[in-house]
Every structure is written in structure tokens, then in C-alpha cells.
Design a protein that fits this description.
single chain, 115 residues, alpha+beta, Cytidine Deaminase, domain 2, five-stranded mixed beta sheet, 3 helices, 5 strands, 23% helix, globular, binds tetrahydrodeoxyuridine
Length: 115
């Protein structure tokens, strides 16, 4: 979260995930003046892991924080990316009143698979 590039929203997000092998990868959101090109913290973390380890990355759990202490579950695009690398992933995020823990398939029922 401290490394986020979020001058447009001022919403700084960090995500860290644990692989099924016990490694931890972190990422932050990286915004762009052409807003639609912005990348969320969750996808930054996952893409960083793939760049380092290759495509066999498997997500066991992923946690998300932000600099406003605001409720913040992963966006729809990130849910689909999490599902691809973690069909059994646990998601930890801040809810309205307390931290929440969900399974990826609760957040993304019927995730897309190309097979
Ligand atoms: N954002 C994330 O990085 N992760 C989330 O789970 C929700 C939203 C970012 C995207 C954008 O840079 C900023 O937060 C405001 O939407």
C-alpha cells in the first residue's frame, strides 16, 4: 500500500497473497492518467508472482488493505484473476464493520474457465 501510485483516486491499496507452497507476494495499485489503464493491487501482486515464478502460481489466500480503512473487497476483474490462479482461494478484506473472510467462489460464483 505504501508504494501505491494513486494520484487520481488517492485510494492507496495493498494486497498480499500466500501461495500453496508458502511464498508471499505483495502488490499495490498503479493508476494512470488514462484511468482505465489502472491496475489493482491484487492483480499487481499476482502478476508479479507469475513474472517471478512462472504460471504455476497457486493462491491459497489473499488479503487486501487500503489507506482509508474503507470496506474494500476485490473488484470483479480481480476476482476473475484470483479464481484463475486460486479456485480455492480464501479472500480477506475489510467489510463495513469488521474484517471478512470469503471463499473466492462466494465472491465469484461460476467463474470463467477456458477448457
Ligand atoms: N483498487 C484496488 O487496487 N483494489 C481493490 O480491491 C479495489 C480498488 C484500486 C483501483 C483504483 O486504483 C483505486 O483502488 C480506486 O478505485
Amino acid at each position: 500500500m505504501k508504494n501505491a501510485h494513486a494520484p487520481y483516486s488517492n485510494f492507496h491499496v495493498g494486497a498480499a497473497f500466500l501461495t500453496t507452497k508458502g511464498e508471499i507476494f505483495a502488490g499495490c495499485n498503479v493508476e494512470n492518467a488514462s484511468y482505465g489503464l489502472s491496475n489493482c493491487a491484487e492483480r499487481t501482486a499476482i502478476f508479479t508472482a507469475v513474472a517471478q515464478l512462472g504460471p504455476k502460481v497457486e493462491i491459497r489466500a489473499i488479503a487486501v488493505v487500503n489507506n482509508h480503512g474503507a470496506p474494500c473487497s476485490p473488484c470483479g476483474a480481480c476476482r476473475q484473476v484470483i479464481y484463475e490462479f486460486g479456485p480455492e482461494a480464501k479472500i480477506l478484506f475489510q467489510g463495513k464493520k469488521a474484517w471478512k473472510k470469503s471463499h473466492i467462489t462466494e465472491l465469484l460464483p461460476e467463474g470463467f474457465r477456458l477448457q
